[in-house]
Amino acid sequence: MKKLTTEKIINKLLTDRLIRLATVKESHYWFFYLYMNHYVTVETAMFQREMFSLTEDIKNKMMVVVAFRGSAKSTIMGLSYPLWAIMGKLEKKYVLLISQTQTKAQTMLQSIKSELEKNQLLKGDLGPFKEEPNQWGSQTLVLTKFNARIATASVEQSVRGTRHNQYRPDLIIVDDIEDLQSVKTKEGRDKTFNWLMGEVIPAGDASTVMVVIGNLLHQDSVIKRLEAKINDNKIRGGVYKAYPLIDENGVVLWPSRYPTYESIEDLKNIYDAVTFNREFMLKILPAEDQVVREEWIQYYDSLPPDNYRYEKMGVDLAISTKTTADYTAAVSARVYGYDKDMKIYILPSLINKRMEFPEAIEHIKLSSSAIGGGKPIEILVEEVAYQSAFTQQLKSDGYPSKGVKIGGSDKLSRLSMTTYLIKSGKILFPKNGVEELIRQMIGFGIEKHDDLVDAFTLLINEIILDKRRPASFGIWEHNTKYYSGMR
Predict the structure, then answer these.
(1) In a domain? residue 386
(2) Is the N-terminal amide bond of 286 cis, ω within 30° of 0?
(3) 3-state secondary structure of 312
(4) In a domain, 76, yes or no
(5) Can you tell me the distance from the alpha carbon of 220 to that of 225, in angstroms, rounded to the nearest whole number?
(6) 98: Cβ–Cβ under 8 A, 6 or more apart, which residues?
(7) Is residue 316 domain-shared with residue 394, that is, in the same domain?
(8) Per-residue pLDDT tens over the stretch 419-444
(9) Distance CA 364, CA 383 (A)
(10) End of a domain among 223, 243, 263?
């Protein structure tokens, strides 16, 4: 049988309505190519074909797609997919479009409405799409012929319990629900993520398909959290796809749009390096004033069997349970070796909680004993005002503790003095259990809370200045004087 060329296939589909209808019902790609070819200005790329394939695979229940700016991800997933999902083989009945603001969500809906009103081929094949009184507006469209609804919502809006007739949302498109401002702090990232998990996902049912699309704005963003859940198989039918403009092998993913080296260079000249890498390469570059960079963090799989010396715990105290209060934070470490062979292994036993005085005492005591295998390890507590009473209480209860005076050094300086040790692998971190500490270090100066960073620097500085060891190591020989106010 002679293989048909793409041109002959298109001609056949355009001239034979029955074949065309059968084809577009099964294929999202051909639905888009035939009815929305006004969006096709250059040859479709392979990664875009993969997007279409993702939507056609009924096994996919959550699709998280990150792609470079201008990749057509919103056109494919936010415009074409809702229409095909209703009119094609999926036969969805209630599509919910969600964006960061209602204005953005309404813009998505308006693009869909425009196709229903002006796309003559689409109207002729699958219409009519009659405008129903009070059913066609800025926030909802009802397609009576298909007994289907498309509605909008924005971040933090309540969507649980919403229905179209007997149908709960069976396709949810989440497009750009974060921006650079909302991802700046952990509180902002938590707020968006908790709303998605607690409000949006429960709005659907077992048959619901969710698509989350956007750009990579932060290593702890909603998209990165969903990626982690998908990789850990914690989301049924989850698939994560990332499409940078240039992949790790140096291949341009959309060669028909960017055919030459010069076309890429022209693009780079429009943006600064940070923006280009974030928006097109899907890489988060550190800000110039970032104290600790993610790529500096080095991990260990297990603790060494030899050269063990001791363990210590650093505590940053905050005696209050008010929601505006700081956290009581504790970071512990095990120290191995001496001098230039000395290494500090941070332990996966963080404390980071708002607590009153009695609860904080008990948490610290329990953790100290657990880390020491029944024998309490030394507890270092910043000695400021009432906190000396905390140290005295620990001592009276039989727990080795020490009040540490920070002196005149500020938080930024104390953290900066640990960076050489982090970058050189003198300080190592477990692969699990200290994620919040690392988040606070990487986001220092931006994140609202830095209590774990305070506990960490208190601990590290005391270990380095410990007079029990025979010599200082690394740059610390030259900086002991800087910390003289701590002793």
Answers:
(1) yes
(2) no
(3) strand
(4) yes
(5) 6
(6) 105, 152, 153, 154, 155, 159, 172, 173, 174, 175, 177, 200
(7) yes
(8) 999 999 999 999 999 998 998 888 88
(9) 16
(10) 243
